[in-house]
Amino acid sequence: xxENYQSYLEYYAKHIRPAINELDIAIKCKSRLGNxxxxxxxxxxxxxxxxxxxxxxxKTLNQRAIVKIMQESNxxxxxxxxxxxELGSPLTYSLEEFSYIxxxxxxxxxxxxxxxxxxxxxxxxxPSIFAALPYEQ
Length: 137
Description:
- By secondary structure, the chain is mostly helical.
- The protein folds into 2 domains: 8-74, no CATH class; 95-132, no CATH class.
- The protein contains 8 helices and no strands.
- The two termini are 17 Å apart.
């Protein structure tokens, strides 16, 4: 493997999971998030957050507002969220659905899953697939 190789699992653990955890804590604890903090968590920018809030008259950054912002933001994590919602958040994913949500090349996903003897993606086997997929910036 290349010395600077990073699996998608490593990327997910460093960037995606912490953002999801921060959002979860902020929503559950009713933390006072501002546009800047939310933009940092989502990997978005303040102007986009402000535009979405103004468009939908979202005065408070509560759970409903955050979900609405995530449904419209162009950040990578929000696009994954949007694709997940589009598919109805199933308990299992076909390889095509999985590659669509995470924006992976379907041929690469099929190759990895064939090597792992996986026919459908679940939350249990997702880490193994992530670990076998390279992360390319």
